[in-house]
Amino acid sequence: MLYTIVNGLLFNITWFVIVTTESAIIAPIVAVLHLSIHFALMGKGYQEVKVIAQVALIGAIVDQLVFYFGVFNVAGRAALPPLWLFCLWPVLGTTLMHAFSSLQGRFVLAALLGGVGGTASFIAGTRLTSVAFESALFGPIIIFIVWAVVFPLLLQIPRLNSR
Question: Is 19 helix (H, G, I), strand (E, B) or coil?
């Protein structure tokens, strides 16, 4: 239980630092520091390394798609997703076998929490950074749908890697 709380707290601190700095230099350093602390305290070895790598890859694809399809812009212009945004994905990956592990196999709850939590995270991120929704109405709706689908799927990655 303690590790679950520490994992969730560490994720939120890291998210806040990466988002508020918006730095292509600081974000990777903070993400590596997060991963180092995570594995020193509660890492689950090679299986978890694979999970985190797969989450990062899926995240890079998701980010590319939502930026490509114009859900987001940077400083009012179409852009590629910033590097600091990608750095959040491996950090999220560290929660799937810990803070969010109880959601594995609970698809409806995971979809609901993914949709609400993902949307809330992106709304907060758009208020703290130069990344903005292209449409203040449709952007959050699209992100809700994306995260309601992606989050339950991400939660299956640890199970698929345990075979």
Answer: helix
At 6, list the tokens: 């520490």
C-alpha to C-alpha distance for 2 and 42, rounded to whole angstroms: 10
Contact criterion met (CB below 8 Å) for 91 and 31 = yes
The answer to whether the pTM exceeds 0.85 is: yes
pLDDT of residue 156: 97
The answer to whether the Cα torsion of 143, 85, 81, 47 is positive or negative is negative
pLDDT tens digits for range 70-111 = 999 998 899 999 999 999 999 999 999 999 999 999 999 999
CA distance between the termini of the chain: 25
Number of domains in the chain: 1
Domain residues for 150? Answer: 2-161
Residues in contact with 158: Cβ distance below 8 Å, sequence separation at least 6, in sequence order: 47, 48, 51, 96, 97, 101, 104
